[in-house]
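Dear colleagues,

I hope this message finds you well. In preparation for our joint manuscript, I am sending the SnoaL-like domain-containing protein (Roseibium denhamense) sequence together with its predicted structure, so that both groups work from identical material. I would be grateful if you could confirm receipt.
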Amino acid sequence: MMRIAKHPHEVGLYVGAYMEEGDLDGIVSLFHPECVICFPPEEAPKHGHQAVREIFGSLIAGRPKVHNTVTGVQECGDIALLQHDWRFEDTEGNLLGEGKSTEVVRRLPNGGWGFFIDCPLGPPPVS
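The corresponding structure tokens are as follows:
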């Protein structure tokens, strides 16, 4: 079942649900085609759907349990700024990773919302 985020705060929740299901195509559908992902933070930002596949492909292999809490949202037309607290756990409840993310979401061609700039550990430092 294809999920369409009707509100900005739903994007991360749906990505988490797709991660738990192991659905890489579902995850990709919630990212803008021209997206930027700042992960891992020590590497240069990655761009587009191919980057989404590369980053999330290995993350979903173990079908982690995803805990996502939206802590801030500011919407302006077809663009919104979000903040999340997130945590990934394995099937036994062991912590795999956690962070505080900052994201920009925008309207997608399907009318839903998708990640445009995704910084899962916050924005990268000024270089």
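For the figure legend, we might mention the following. The chain has a mean pLDDT of 94. Residues 10-21 form the longest helix (12 residues).

With kind regards,
E.M.
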